[in-house]
Amino acid sequence: DQQVKQNSPSLSVQEGRISILNCDYTNSMFDYFLWYKKYPAEGPTFLISISSIKDKNEDGRFTVFLNKSAKHLSLHIVPSQPGDSAVYFCKGSGNTGKLIFGQGTTLQVKP
Amino acid sequence: ETGVTQTPRHLVMGMTNKKSLKCEQHLGHNAMYWYKQSAKKPLELMFVYNFKEQTENNSVPSRFSPECPNSSHLFLHLHTLQPEDSALYLCASSQGDGDNYGYTFGSGTRLTVV
Fold it and tell me: Could you tell me if A45 and A88 are in contact, meaning their C-beta atoms sit under 8 angstroms apart?
């Protein structure tokens, strides 16, 4: 049972535009969500998080939105930069089941 | 460097070999994790250690054997692996073993079983 899903394996965006990465979850017991960014040949690095009691958290160019009723969260990057090109993982918290990370979405920001 | 160091970065081993992966962190974190990332699959949690005690084993085959001698070091001993075990093995650490803490990941060991 995959409790966290990222249904878009890849996304291509022009530099300066907005990137929107989506994540859906099924476990209503998750109380915290985190986004990680991964470059090739490196481990994931923590990017931004949101508690389930909030619907928005902003950190510079990165904003995460949470829609609990839809069990959906999204990461917005504005404006997108070529250095943002990486794989982005979302993670649900509160459950240490085997599949707690999404599959990842590869973002490519074109100059 | 993130503060979590994994060695070796790359490893090629035969199915009859015995090898070990090493992970080291000096961030003062109490929890350490092994994850497996196969091609086109989500990150899979393998083991969790909190204060040197194993608190999670997600039905990992016995050919993978973890060892945590202290809060700063974590090993993954490998023996009689299968080609399908080829993957990127990531070590992570966090302040506590609750998921609310962000994880710090190492760069991973790229394992190829031939």
Answer: no
